[in-house]
Amino acid sequence: SHSITLSHGPVTSLKWPAMTMDFVLANPAMLDGLKPGSKVDIEFVERDAGEWVITKIQPAAQGQ
Fold first, then answer.
1. What is the pLDDT of residue 61?
2. pLDDT (0 to 100) of residue 62
3. I need a labelling partner for 50 at 20 to 30 A (CA). Which of 2, 16, 21, 40 fits?
4. CB-based contacts of 1, cutoff 8 Å, min separation 6
5. At 56, phi and psi to the nearest 5?
6. What's phi and psi for 62, nearest 5 deg?
7. Are the beta carbons of 26 and 43 closer than 8 angstroms?
8. Is 31 helix (H, G, I), strand (E, B) or coil?
């Protein structure tokens, strides 16, 4: 499976602090057009215990 390392802010619903962590990509083609270091908006789910899978990734909206 393909993974991506992201730095994210706090995720209050999961009681996560801001951190850098690895996510699995539901589909590696999701990264097409994205460059390392880009700010992105993501949606993710927990597929198995501790396995966080990105189901949607896109460039962050301007001004965020």
1. 85
2. 76
3. 40
4. 24, 25
5. -155, 135
6. -60, 140
7. no
8. helix
Buried b or exposed e, range 24-60, using 16+ CB within 10 angstroms? ebbeeebbeeeeeeeebebebeeeeeeebbbeebeee
Q: How many CA atoms lie within 13 A of 8 on its CB side?
A: 19
- CA 59-1-40 angle, 5° bins: 10
CA distance 1 to 23: 10
Do 55 and 26 form a contact (C-beta atoms < 8 A)? yes
